[in-house]
Specification:
The chain is of the alpha/beta class. The protein is built from eleven helices and twelve strands. The strands form three sheets. The protein has an eight-stranded parallel barrel with strand order 3-4-5-8-9-10-11-12, surrounded by seven helices. The chain has a two-stranded antiparallel sheet with strand order 1-2. The chain has a two-stranded parallel ribbon with strand order 6-7.
């Protein structure tokens, strides 16, 4: 059998295949009122189409643990029960198609309070939709971004609690996988990198201090997430800053990622979702097909922690080779699943695998 179509078990959860959907923000929730951050028909149709297309696991987009944790005012949230109820419609449909529903729990940190990408994505400041972004240190993301408010130790503990509350709600909403978003320059990633973390207390300076918040969030979530269900962590394996300088103080490195992966494994993380970049706006990134896969492979080889690879994976043969060569345990597709919601079914036809196909679509198999 093709490696892409072998089931994969983590803890007591079996995912039917290794073609998974990466979290991708839709920036389409209502902004104000009781339905702020609530998933609606667009989100249902978006995720339902990929489930009907045979995707094994769908990770719902970065979902904010608090209103201030959103990237844009139109992000999804999971800080109240109305949001939970809306998610139940989505998770029930996904499970009905044989797809495992997962969710990415997120806090945007200093990259919050920005506009939707198709409106330019600029920071929102003097506007009813705006809020004050927060960060480990008062260092803006870019020159046109506001200086974020530096978090106190009390506020750091409060946000870790918000992640735990969000995980409880995610379980109530029917999700079977929770992923903590520690990548792409959002709040947890801001703590990890010395480029953005200039603190001098127990949350800054040394590797142990800069990783403290990430591990506290993992511990808080793992404490409320069922023992039988897996917990993922998404990381940017490099900021792509130190690759262009000899000064390792400039950013987070692949060596740091391997070191943290061992700690995450010890704290109950079951799989590392390995991406890169996002912390610095002008980092030089050598983008190309599968350009992030070697980072996933290194974590898997050196730590034994299962990994999912992501980054310009667009072809069934390419995805199959990543798994067959032992570079990753699963592949996460992003833009390719936007282009082709039935990628998994097409890949099964090409490689001789099998995926769930709705009865209504059997005539097209």
């Amino acid at each position: 059998m093709s490696a892409l179509f072998e089931p994969y078990t983590l803890r007591s959860l079996t995912i039917p295949n290794r073609i998974w959907m990466a979290p991708m923000c839709q920036y389409s929730a209502e902004v104000f009122g009781p339905n702020a951050g609530v998933a609606h028909d667009w989100h249902f149709a978006h995720y339902a189409a990929r489930a009907a297309g045979g995707t094994g696991l769908i990770l719902v987009e970065a979902t904010a643990v608090s209103p201030e944790g959103r990237i844009s005012p139109a992000d999804l949230g999971i800080w109240n029960d109305r949001q939970v109820e809306a998610f139940r419609r989505i998770t029930a449909f996904l499970e009905g198609q044989g797809t495992v529903p997962g969710i990415q729990l997120a806090h945007a940190g200093r990259k919050g309070s920005t506009d939707r990408p198709w409106r330019g994505g600029a920071p929102i400041v003097a506007d009813p939709e705006a809020w004050q972004p927060v960060a480990p240190s008062p260092v803006p993301y870019d020159e046109d971004h506001p200086v974020p408010a530096e978090l106190t130790t009390g506020q750091i503990a409060e946000i870790a609690g918000q992640f735990a509350d969000a995980a409880r709600r995610a379980l109530a909403a029917g999700f079977k996988v929770a992923e903590i978003h520690g990548a792409h320059g959002y709040l947890i990633g801001e703590f990890l990198s010395p480029h953005s973390n200039r603190r001098t207390d127990e949350y800054g300076g040394s590797f142990e201090n800069r990783t403290r918040f990430a591990l506290e969030v993992v511990d808080a979530v793992r404490a409320v997430w069922p023992e039988e269900l897996p917990l993922f962590f998404r990381i940017s394996a490099t900021d792509w800053l130190t690759e262009n300088t000899e000064d390792e103080r400039d950013g987070w490195t692949a060596d740091d990622t391997v070191r943290l992966a061992r700690e995450l494994k010890a704290h109950g993380v079951d799989l590392l979702d390995v991406s890169t970049g996002g912390l610095a706006p002008r980092a030089r990134i050598p983008v190309g097909p599968g350009y992030q896969v070697p980072f996933a492979e290194r974590v898997r080889t050196e730590t034994g922690l299962p990994v999912a690879a992501v980054g310009l994976i667009t072809d069934p043969v390419q995805a199959e080779k990543i798994l067959a060569d032992g570079q990753a345990d699963a592949v996460l597709l992003g833009r390719e699943l936007l282009r082709n919601p039935s990628f998994a079914r097409h890949a099964a036809r090409e490689l001789g695998g099998e995926v769930h196909t709705p009865q209504q679509y059997h005539r097209a198999v």
